[in-house]
Amino acid sequence: MAAVTHSAPLDRLMRPLHHWIWSDRDRRLRKLLTFADVETDGGRDILRAAEVTPDPLLRRLYLEHAIDELHHGDLFRDRSAALWRARSGRRRVLLSGNPLPGGHGLDDLKIEGEPDHRLLAFLHVAEKSAAGRFAIYRELVDDDPATREIFEEILRDEVFHMNYTYTQLARVAPHSYRRHVWYARAKRLWNRYLRVAAALAGVAGNALLALMYFVVLPPFAWFAKRAERREAAGFLSVSRGRRDAAPRSQY
Q1: Poorest-confidence range of 5-9, 91-95, 151-155, 181-185?
Q2: What is the pLDDT of residues 154-165, one digit of tens each?
Q3: Averaged over 10-23, what is the pLDDT?
Q4: What is the pLDDT of residue 246?
Q5: Do 108 and 197 form a contact (C-beta atoms < 8 A)?
Q6: Distance between CA atoms of 51 and 49, rounded to whole angstroms?
Q7: pLDDT band at 185 (very low <50, low <70, confident <90, very high)
Q8: Which residues lie below 8 Å from residue 231, measured CB to CB, with a gap of 6+?
Q9: In Å, what is the CA distance from 12 to each residue of 15, 103, 176, 188?
Q10: Contact in structure between 71 and 150 (CB atoms under 8 Å)
């Protein structure tokens, strides 16, 4: 387990933000629910990988991995339900509890048409990243022994997942397994960049729309009010010559 405690530098740098998230019961509840969904979805994806792989050893390992992921989802969901029942009152929080990546990030996982070496590299990188992050979370929930126990159990499974994926990758692609791992890391980093860029674009778009609404539109509304005051009230009379003329258009 000692190897797992070495978290990524970014996660160590963001530790104060992690602490802020897990220090609030509502944010902790939302985070656990997010983990439950991610683990369950990842288990279904890995189960599909077990169906399509032609390698009998990988099929058995994928099945065991999928069972573990589904079990993790149940653990997180049950703990979330317990925290929900223990809530003293309902209140709003500033943040939904998921400003940082959590779980495995298996939402990026694609099964169909992917060779085993690429899938193994992706799983290894994802499991290693999740293990380091879960090690931080385990330390931040010392006030919650039940949640800490869940993270300890899941960390033991993450060590197995991290090790078997690397070992099998070296077996499947003995001459290029390191290159596949670096490619999976680069692709994961690129996907994170795209998510951050999309979030920033959404914030910038909302700010621009607010600026247009409060700065650009008011002058036009003022000009429309001014023009309205110059208009005569009621219907406008139409001259006799224009009324008797044959209509050439609807205007």
Answers
A1: 91-95
A2: 999 999 999 999
A3: 78
A4: 62
A5: no
A6: 5
A7: confident
A8: none
A9: 5, 16, 30, 19
A10: no
CA pair distance 17, 133, nearest whole angstrom: 13
Residues 6+ apart with CB under 8 A from 91: 26
How many CA atoms are closer than 13 Å to the CA of 20, on its beta-carbon side? 12
Angle at 63 between CA 103 and CA 11, to 5 degrees: 15
Rounded Cα distance between 69 and 109, Å, is 14
Residue 213 has pLDDT above 90, yes or no: no
Place of tokens 């044959």: 246
CB 204: neighbour CB atoms within 10 A? 10
What pLDDT, on the 0 to 100 scale, is given for residue 100?
47
Mean pLDDT estimate for the chain? 82
SS3 144: coil
Cα separation, 156 vs 152, in Å, equals 7
Q: What is the DSSP letter of 237?
A: P
Cβ atoms of residues 124 and 184 within 8 Å = yes
Assigned CATH class of 2-202:
mainly alpha
Given a contact cutoff of 8 angstroms between Cβ atoms, the answer to whether 26 and 59 are in contact is no
Q: Where are the domains of the chain?
A: 2-202
List C-alpha distances in Å: 178 to 20, 46, 118. 36, 22, 11
